[in-house]
Amino acid sequence: MPIFDPPPNLSDLAWSLAATAAGRVTLMLRAAREATTWRSALRTLLWELPITVSLGMISWALTDWLSLQGGAAFVLAAMLGRFGPDRLEPFFDSFLAQLVRKP
Question: Cross-referenced InterPro entries, in alphabetical order (predicted)?
Answer without folding.
Answer: LydA_holin
